[in-house]
Amino acid sequence: MPAIFPFNGYLVSSNHATEVVTPPYDQLTPAERHEFARTHTNNYINTMRTTEEYEDKTLTVDCVLEGNAAKLQELLKNGTFVESAKPCFYLYRLAADGHEQIGVVAEIPIDDYAHGVLKKHEHTRNDHEDNLTRYHEVVGASSSPVCVAYKENLEISKLIATLTEAKPDLDFTLDDGLSQSLWCVEDEAVQQRLVKLFAKIPETYLTDGHHRAASGLRYAVKCRARNPDYSGKEPFNFLLVAMFADNALRILPWHRCVKDLNGHDASTVIRAIENDFQVEKLPGAAEPQQPREFTMLLDEIWYRVKLKSGFFVSDDPVDSLDVSILQKEILQPIFGIEDPRADSRLANIPGAAGISALEEKVNEGWAVAFCCYNTSIQELMAVADAEEVMPPKSTWLDPKVRSGIFVRMR
To answer: Could you say which of 36, 113, 236, 287 is the most buried, measured as most Cβ atoms within 10 Å of its Cβ?
Structure first.
């Protein structure tokens, strides 16, 4: 049963939102982040710098983090952000490409993540956790809510719909086309209604932000060790989240490209795939239309690759994923991709880039491309319920929650 809490913090000023709210951070290379920060000096991305963005390799992590902290204090003091007068919930709307989703931004106890109340589906890397924990220690702020899904509750959906009939407190569109709107929920009676309704939710699922959640827990553990008489109400004991109903989220696929044919020619590859799949030549580029189906670009020809009806699909929530089937039945046995996490012959292309990105990759000299069907939110939840881990590059949530709207000091 998730417990949600309103929080005190800073909200970006409506006059500064378009210049301050960040682009999708994890879609930018370090070089692109560096250039964006250089040309957008008031953007919140300037509080999120890392050493890999700089040519000067003598810069220490702490030196860069201290610069981040100084920039944050500048933004907090120059009127870019406005401090909330009282604890608030926020209704947060994202809209792009005909898709719209509205969620509740709140805080939850970090122990919900520690104890599995907030279910996860990914492993995290220690080095990433180290870096983000150090960020908390030096910069002392959160601005990127982790994305959390819950199975739709009609009472919550109706309440959100009613509250968002009012004019938003913040409404803006970024250059990349993402529209964002925000409603502050200050009324204590409405806040209590949201608290009671979310208490009825049986499970919550971490869909994006595993490293942020893990580092938040690490930071809380360190703070508790330094403050053994902590009350549990300190900001470090909470995690900033954006909670969305499962049917509101849009998950795009990750596609696969392979550098070479592993010593085979195209006809041999097709015959090998035909052992378990129906292979049909297509007149042009196309995306798969249903689960258990891929499209393939090979020798400038597009094919539909559909799993044969008699093929046994495991009941295991990980093995039954399309990306698992592609790996186990095609990429590993035919192309020799043993470790999809580490093999340099395998490239992963986000679905947001479109099918044209696969054609561009093949034009660059890669041998074959596979366009995948998206993993569903139900499949993600099934993996989390089983306490298993998704294969690498299984889901791409779009649109992603942005940084630079909220600032919560820790």
So the answer is: 113
